[in-house]
């Protein structure tokens, strides 16, 4: 039996997103290991989707977040559906997710222990894709929610500075500029939702002659290779997204052999790689 793939990104823009690209690569590598064929059935943003073909496959792996209605329609054609990097609200669904919400709170606890209280967050919007291919924007993602919740629990509401837009270097730069112009007191630390946005934040801080980490500490997510070459080197969260893809194949293989008695939720643990962009407040 073969595994059918439903992908979040188009073929053109997938290479620019190493996180999702590595999930896809992990799926292909693990499937080859078990001599399982894989085939891309369609991309989420495709307007025309041939759902009838789904029943021909032993399992379907869906990379990314679709609406609950879309997931239900897919499962109507094939019960063996595994979602990767998703957090659906429907029951009876197997999915593999990251721990970025929990990791954000651990980062904030670490910064708190270093003396930081005035901590800002710069990040992007989460979104889901409907069956018709349209993107539906959500208010915020797990990292932003975890940040707001943590700041309120710690009684740091007056320091809650949340800046959200699309995930890009340009928006990281623009949002950091906006933050600097709006705030009377510069935060001592910034948590950034992705390394590309962190590149924009670095540029903005340099333009304003704000030193990292002497004036402000920076922690980000993705841990892409280029961040090692920033000055100072960027502290960032690493997630082995290739292993997420491999885990999905192993789960798909098990489902093809024997129907599961209960749905599984697998949370993959990230790692914080600390470098030179974080400093303790004296």
TrEMBL record:
A single MF term (Gene Ontology): DNA-binding transcription factor activity
Domain Transcriptional regulator LacI/GalR-like sensor: 109-278
Superkingdom of origin organism: Bacteria
Keyword Transcription found: yes
Matches recorded under Pfam families: Peripla_BP_3
SUPFAM superfamilies, per database record: Periplasmic binding protein-like I (SSF53822)
Keyword field contains Transcription: yes
Keyword list, A-Z: DNA-binding, Transcription, Transcription regulation
Gene3D superfamilies membership: 3.40.50.2300
Protein name: LacI family transcriptional regulator
Lineage of the organism: Bacteria, Bacillati, Bacillota, Bacilli, Lactobacillales
